[in-house]
Design a protein that fits this description.
Blueprint: H1 20-33, H2 38-59, H3 63-80, H4 89-93, H5 97-101, H6 105-111, H7 118-126, E1 130-132, E2 135-136, E3 152-154, H8 164-168
Length: 169
């Protein structure tokens, strides 16, 4: 047993970390999505890698078992907003880390226009100015599910929230 205060790593780094094309691609993605460090990118790549592995494993199963498990996996990815509604296992195999990064709270706050830059979106979230359905979320890496997306707004106590009495004046 390991030390309970030290959790297990949830990500795998690149197998060849010093290849120029990998480094350039990582820098572009870190800047585009306003990630704190490459570990956040590696986490996204690891999660997508697990989904693709699960899809490959399903392709090897007998037809009756595969249909049941395939339906639940596709439904989960649809609810997460990563895949469209009528997706197939081949669509899972073509997923990239960018598909996952688009569903982070930080990215969606920026896309909804609640922040002027992707970095300001991260700051608003960390400082507690963003809420989902009235509940504050202070994790920029929170994956926003499809049904939660319209509920994203400023927190009720945030000074950024425009109040009706302020508009009347």
């Amino acid at each position: 047993m390991g030390d309970p205060r030290k959790s297990k790593r949830k990500w795998m780094g690149p197998s060849h970390p010093w290849r120029r094309e990998i480094l350039q691609e990582e820098i572009v993605l870190v800047g585009k999505y306003g990630l704190r460090n490459k570990r956040e990118l590696w986490l996204a790549k690891t999660i997508i890698r697990r989904f693709r592995h699960q899809a490959r494993r399903l392709l090897a199963l007998p037809e009756d078992i595969r249909r049941r498990e395939e339906k639940s996996l596709l439904h989960r990815l649809y609810q997460m907003g990563i895949l469209p509604e009528n997706a197939t296992l081949d669509d899972i195999l073509s997923l990239t880390a960018e598909d996952y990064l688009k569903r982070r709270l930080q990215t969606i706050v920026y896309q909804k226009g609640l922040a002027k830059t992707i970095y300001q979106a991260r700051q608003l979230i960390v400082h507690g100015h963003i809420a989902i359905g009235g509940r504050r979320v202070n994790a920029p890496g929170y994956i926003v599910w499809r049904d939660e997306e319209p509920l994203i707004d400023y927190a009720p106590t945030s000074p950024f929230k425009v109040r009706p009495e302020a508009e009347a004046k």
